[in-house]
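ZP: hey, is the fe (ii) ion complex queued? I don't see it on the tracker
AM: it wasn't, my bad. submitting now with these inputs:
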Amino acid sequence: MDEQAYGVARSGAQSSAQSSAQGRRENEAQSDTHGDQFRRSAQHSAARGVARRVVEGDGPNILGEIWSPSCGVAVWRRDLGEPFQTWLDTLALEDLPDARIVSSPASAGTVLDAYVSRHGMAEGEFRTQLAADAAMLAGAFARIMKTVSVRIRLDVISDNACRKFHLDNVEARLLCTYRGRGTQYGCSQGNADPSPIHELTTGDVGLFRGQRWPTLERCGIVHRSPPLSGCGETRLLLVVDDGGPDMCGM
Ligand SMILES: [Fe+2]
């Protein structure tokens, strides 16, 4: 790996314990500012370099740094906290929610909760918390990426889906693993795997640039699902994409 080209910047003084509660408030208050600021500067940049920088922080505002020059992924390090994490970790496999919705950001929580309810997930405090957390992250994605709708997936993964390192065919994608090992990522090495390989931890939020990132910088940070085959592990992964211009309400 090109150590000089791969930079990890830490930002934010919040503790993990503070981040969830403060995060929602600060995210709504400041993500617009950060997203606007970085999008403007990035779009006006003529840089044609490779974005290999990893930016990390303990609060949600770090996600807006995806627009900063040479940033390939912005990571919000966080802990989902107890007893929510234990509830996620001990859900029976047949009760894990496999969801696909497209919604306005404002309605995402309600639409997602209704979806998992229709598909048999029992009502309860933690189901509501899961839908609210996913909706909060979808809202952050929408504000940062300036989308009018969001496509939300909750994937239940127990095999080696997406085992090869890749860039997604989108402008950007937000990932958060609610249960199990997080997404792996590293500096692109052509056909070879990155070295070293980094891994998000459970609850972390990664906003990754994709193939269609709208500036001239090529993204040099690739990612994949962690290899699971034979581990007996089942992951629950949140994926948030742009829902498209005409997809609201579907
Ligand atoms: Fe991917």
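AM: back. The chain is about 25% helix and 25% strand.
ZP: great, adding it to the tracker
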